Queue: 4 jobs
Job 1
Amino acid sequence: MKKSDPVPPDKETLIVQLLLKCGLFLQREMNQVCQRFGLKQQQVSVLNEIVWHGPINQKELGEKLLFEKSNVSKIVSILLEKNLISSAGAPVDRRMTLLFETPEGLAVWKDCMQAFHQSSTEIMSLLSEDEAVEAIRFLKKLQKAFKNK
């Protein structure tokens, strides 16, 4: 092998490279879905978290989504401005602000999730049922490993 020839990656590096490429593809595809609703992917992720786990405060949002505190603040401001979420003091501790979806936010979220579902179904149609089950098992295992790191 010449000094200038690239070193073939080991299997671990190859897995990470393939996951990164798949992630970039999926991010591009999902950004296109989000744009139909005048939103960015991170904004939809925050709205999704509020719908599923709200009422929730900004600190918890950042921790669940692994977003920087400043990014969460910017995204929340945009979603408040678009009237997709609202905020109110927590019943137990008024110093803490909780975030809720608005009726408009819930409607946009439902439409966006339907579009996500259609796009995901199209993308994943390449996998057999067994491959899909195995992919889910593998990705959950990998996600658990990341959380423990």
Note: The chain has a mean pLDDT of 89.
Job 2
Amino acid sequence: MTWQFLADNLPHVTATLNLTATVLLALGLVNIRRGKARQHKKFMLWALGVSGLFLLLYLFHKLALYQATGEPNKRFPTDPAVAPDAARYTYYGILLTHLLLAMTVPFLALRAVYLAMKGRIVAHKKLVKYAYPIWMYVSVTGVLVYLMLYQIYA
């Protein structure tokens, strides 16, 4: 495999993992609201695992892209014929909030799992009141960033 092949194809894999995490998170929420704690646990642990794999491949993509192009990031198009200014501003607004919140997700998710595994359900519920929407937002906006950068305005 070449660096260029990885640089070109890993975004599709990581976006699929992000979408999968989104679905797993939603299923985890549905199951806990239905009182199915065991199924909730399975879906949330799968979401954590998928998100962990996403992170590893995302970082590997940065390396592959750097090796192939000398840049660790693909730039959003500046040509108004490709992407209007409104799309670019929307993209950067989504990207900024996505990146800032994404940095918190591993810590929040791991802490939530720790609390649940220790049986500290009250503390777990307090944390996930904030952690879950952040994680869901990051997963959904990750897919949106991918769509805007690699599909819609490619």
Note: Residues 21 and 49 are 9 Å apart (CA to CA).
Job 3
Amino acid sequence: MISADQALKIVLENVAALGVERIPILDALGRVVAENISSSRDIPGFDNSAMDGYAVRAADLAKASEASPVKLAVVETVGAGQMPTRRISAGQAVRTMTGAPIAEGADAIIPVERTRGSGDTIEFLAVAEKAAFIRPRGEDLRLGELVMSAGKTLTPADLGMLASVNRAMVEVVRRPRVANRCHRR
């Protein structure tokens, strides 16, 4: 008689690896990843606004307050999915929606709640701190950063992560196939 540990050792020494197959990520839920996966890009891929507001130069608002607002000219509106076309100069701002890229020349976002007015000139009621409300490029993932290791069973969140790093296909461990041979006589 042999122990359970000895039996397991014998089985594992005599079982062939299942192999690997490449499948679409949409078919990969519950499958085991057979490769290490690294990010193919920085995520986010650009500095972007953490909230709706205005991209500004912090220096322009160094003395802004509710009692003494600073007026800036709004030179562009940038929504999520759009790229800014203007560079911010002194005395200018770009209306910027959550997730939208930050206009060149800007170094802060002022939330819309800290402004007054509408149209082409806005009053700013608060000082802007450099980098305030800006999500920097690569904050979530850096190019080449390990996203997941071989051996992980894929969850719905993992499939979302694979999509975010531009993976349409993934290498997974083949599923075992069980055959049942019945002979009729």
Note: Residues 178 and 184 are 19 Å apart (CA to CA).
Job 4
Amino acid sequence: MTKHITGTRKEWLAARLELLEAEKELTRRSDELARRRQELPWVRIDKEYRFETDEGSASLPDLFRGRSQLLVYHFMFGPDYTAGCPACSAIADGFNGFVVHLAHHDVTLSAVSRAPLAKLQAYKRRMGWTFPWASSFGSDFNVDFNVRFTEEQQREGGIEYNYEREPAWTPRAPSPDDADDGAVVFAAMSGTDVATYTRERPGMSAFVLEDGVLYHAYSTYARGLDGLWGMYQWLDRAPQGRNETGVWWRRHDEYDKR
């Protein structure tokens, strides 16, 4: 027997209509937040950044590919990783389908990571992705947009991520609980240690080109990225929700064949 509450169709409909009002309110609030994002002041960028792309060396304006807006996903793939972060990979699984639709709205979507281009290209082939992905190796781009930190910052509590300062990171001995620790599991899946893995962070930044001038418009991090996970939008509507037990993210080529 199910442990979940059950009822008649009439009871379900009454509860559903009550929930509908809350859903409509959330939609209205979401629309308002979108408007407020678009009203944020733009910050001019005069610093030069260089990237390596499939087409060769590129500047930040080059990543726009002739469009006026650029959305960058800060994908956790450091130079010392042997594979991309599994959580970032889950988010990026939806990019191939989005890219063409965004392009028709004058928006370019690109991932950016610090790993050398050859590593990114090999991983793209493994995952079957075709969206643009640039290497910022040797550039300050990831540092300036708060998704890359140094050992010193990590050790001394100097990391400011998601607009908050984090406490100093201290190593700890391996524990049986590590199987439920996302950082430990993801570091191993990315082929590196926890300290190195967590010096890279995920995020998303929006840029604008207007009259030849480059601006930074918006950035979000951590749980602010939830809305970009296409699978979460489906799971939040499934009967058991996200149903998260332990560390459940996997790359799509690592799930058991069923």
Note: The longest strand covers residues 213-221.
